[in-house]
Write a structure and sequence with these properties.
Layout (H helix, E strand, L loop, with lengths): L4 E8 L4 E3 L6 E5 L4 E6 L2 E10 L2 E9 L10 H10 L2 E5 L2 E5 L6 E6 L5
Antiparallel strand pairs: 1-2, 1-3, 1-9, 3-4, 4-5, 5-6, 7-8, 8-9
């Protein structure tokens, strides 16, 4: 999980399912130095993270402020990430969970990259 680049595929909540049509626009990479490197569509950013067995949380995140296309989900992606409290890996997918059963983000490993 750490050191790999992951692409956001979808988020499923109790009230909706959000499918990411271009996952390469939204990536996540956790470094061994506890830094999250993120791609929020046309913006880049990051922040700190804390990880323990099955638990994951992100500190405050910063990002560049380029104007992204109208169909961008950059703000919602950042909002979801800042609320993550746990994770699990199943098969080739990384799942980040929101608290109290409020939803799950699913990621796949970026093709051709670590």
């Amino acid at each position: 999980m750490i050191g790999k680049t992951w692409q956001w595929q979808e988020t499923v909540t109790p009230v909706e399912k959000i499918t990411v049509l271009q996952p390469e626009r939204y990536t996540l990479r956790l470094t061994e130095k506890r830094r999250a490197e993120l791609k929020f569509d046309c913006n880049r950013g990051g922040g700190s993270y804390q990880i323990a067995e099955g638990k994951l949380s992100f500190g405050p995140m910063m990002a560049t402020r380029m104007a992204c296309p109208e169909d961008s989900m950059d703000a919602i992606y950042m909002k979801y990430l800042q609320n993550v409290n746990s994770y699990f890996i199943e098969g080739d997918s990384l799942y980040l969970e929101l608290p109290a059963g409020n939803g799950t983000l699913r990621f796949r490993q970026q093709p051709g990259h670590n």
